[in-house]
Amino acid sequence: MLGAFSSEWRKLRRRSMLVWGVGGGLLCSVFATALTIERTRRTFPPGAGARFHVTIAQLSRPDGFVHGVLTASNLIGIVSLCLFAGAVAIEYSQGTLRILLVCQPRRGQLLTGKFLALAAFVGIAIALAVSVAAGVAFALGPSKGINTSPWTTGAGLDDLGQTILHVYLASVGYGILGTALAILLRSSALAITIGVAYALPGEAIISRFWSSGDRWLPGQLLSALAHGGTTTASYTRALVILSIYATVVAAGTLVIFGRRDV
Amino acid sequence: MITHRARVGIGDGVRVGRARAAVVAAGLTKRYGSRLAVDAVDFELPGGVVSGFVGPNGAGKTTTVGMLVGLIRPTGGTAEVLGHSVSRPAAYLSRVGALIEAPAFYPTLSGRRNLEVLTRLSRLDRARIAEVLELVGLSDRGDDLVRSYSLGMKQRLGVAAALLPAPELVILDEPANGLDPAGMREIRSLLRTLADHSTTVFVSSHMLAEVQAICDYLVMIDKGRIVFQGAIDDLLAAQRSELVAIPEHVADLARLLEVCAAGGYPARIDRDAVRVQASGSWAAELNRRAMGAGITLRGLRSIRASLEEAYFSITDQAEDPRP
User: Fold this and answer.
1) Given an 8 Å threshold on Cβ–Cβ distance, is B123 in contact with A3?
2) Distances (CA, A) of B71 to B39, B65, B172, B294
3) Fewer Cβ atoms within 10 Å of its own Cβ: the N or the C terminal residue of chain A?
4) What is the Cα A229 distance to its own chain's centre?
5) Contact B3/B228 with Cβ under 8 angstroms?
6) Is the overall model pTM greater than 0.95, yes or no?
7) What is the predicted ipTM?
8) What are all long-range contacts of A228-231, with beta carbons under 8 Å and residues at least 24 apart?
9) What distance lies between CA A94 and its chain's CA centroid?
10) pLDDT tens-place string over residues A138-169
């Protein structure tokens, strides 16, 4: 498995992967952070939509910085889905899977090593994206009257650490979905299209007709996980149900990958 | 279905026995739905020689090779590679190098980096990369991106990738595709060198002339069935050969035809020569008889059947099994 990890890591250092993976995450988090700060006000009129409007007082709290990161969390998850799906499916479409399987015939090890390398890559990309977003927030915050000094307190750093972990876990969850779609469909374009279509408009549409959807749908639960829990799905609930989903999907993916002709 | 076999004591030292066979397939079958891609094939490959695997496109070559390297699961039968069942490819693939179908690499990585991906995966010594690039003549282009490579260069890189583990068995699927004549000669020489160092080479190809030039042993497949396996020399020797006799004067052609007929060999006139369906051993006798009849020959040569002719002869028999 170490060989598969190391081999995948070499591929992830390609410029295209750095641009799409790291660049994508960076763009999402910086854009979301800048937008959150830009739209902040002292107060908002009643009914303005609490989800997208954060007050200066809220941003001046120790957990103020994470608002921007959380706004970007779903987009970071989608970037992660695309990255995993693209990196796995391209081995089929490019024909490189054959040569990889001759070098490493233990298919489970190959896929697991590849997945772990992608997960590590996403972790680094998120850490980098949050760091750059923090720089942007520290630069823009004071101009909007936001007190940034609580962000660097112990409580602020603790909140930030937890948020990064939650966003990372959610991104890995999106990665499992992307990997499963890639193995199933064997096409980057199809896997990404179907994955994004399901995660963005798909679940939103289902939720409209299914009132309990927020408590069961994987995309909604991943969002709850990234936010550390929501009013409809607690963090623990999201983590437990997503762990079950992940185990089932990962097992099914490994069985399909292990048995299907290449 | 006619299956020609020459298992033991064939050619110049090519022997196939269980102890020395690199690959043994018994009833190996692959069915895709109602389509039978490989139909219960039995064959053995001798160790340490270059063996060819020939057949037209769609005959089942790549499917068979895919089953040997664990990419495709057989639906019936068994096969052993280097003494291990194909159901457990991890047991033998570390000793096998393979290039299956078109050479596939990461276009935005250099040739050297592509090989590095594979050495990391197989946990091989990276010093092998320079060695195999040198072997296939890509040392000076190893640092260029693969997307800038010609098909022939990709093919060489594919062969280099197959050689990375210093394998006991090399399986190459259509290695001459896209190569220019000089490239083909280099690959031919490389394969010969490998065989000289006791590496077993199994080359799948539909280019019969190339196989004839490279291989000692042959497995022929047609419509998913093995139609011949044995030494190429034996196959060609069994084919109908011809003598071409050219008289000094064109006017003697008809009389030369009669001389051949008197000797019991059918012949025909082809422009300024008489083509006789006889082996090379009758050449001296024909020369004597022509001289006895007052005909001076200005040319007399024996023509051996090509692999292509042998191939079509066998596949035609397979399609029309009447005696």
Assistant:
1) yes
2) 18, 9, 14, 67
3) N
4) 15
5) yes
6) no
7) 0.86
8) A228/A162, A228/A163, A228/A166
9) 26
10) 888 888 888 888 888 999 899 999 999 999 99
CA A85, A86, A92, A93 dihedral sign is: positive
A104 and chain B in contact, CB less than 8 A = yes
Contacts with A4 from chain B: Cβ below 8 Å: 121
Residue pLDDT, tens place only, A3-16: 999 999 999 988 88
What is the C-alpha separation between B205 and B193, in angstroms, rounded? Answer: 19
Sheet of B273-276, strand order: B267-270, B273-276, B242-247, B297-303
Contact A73, A29 (CB under 8 A): no
Inter-residue contact A59 to A40 (CB < 8 Å): yes
Mean pLDDT of B236-257: 89
Cα distance from A138 to chain B (closest Cα, Å)?
37
Tokens 């909140």 belong to residue: A159
- With a cut of 90, say whether residue A25 has pLDDT above it: no
Cβ-contact B169, B96 below 8 angstroms:
yes
Distance (Å, whole) CA A65 – CA A40:
12
- A215 to chain B, any CB pair closer than 8 A? The answer is no
At residue A41, what are phi and psi to the nearest 5 degrees? -135, 170
Cβ(A262)–Cβ(A251) under 8 Å?
Answer: no
In whole angstroms, what is the distance from residue B173 CA to residue B157 CA? 13
Both structure tokens of A165: 């972990």
Q: Which of A42-51, A71-80, B87-96 is least confident? A: A42-51
Closest CA to B29 of B76, B70, B89: B76
- B169-190 pLDDT tens trace: 999 988 887 778 887 888 888 8
Task: Tell me whether residues B121 and A261 touch, CB distance under 8 A.
Answer: no
End-to-end CA distance of chain B: 12
Query: Which SS3 state, helix, strand or coil, does residue B195 take?
Result: helix
- Supply the pLDDT for residue A141: 84
For A205-229, the pLDDT digits (tens) are 998 888 888 899 999 999 999 999 9
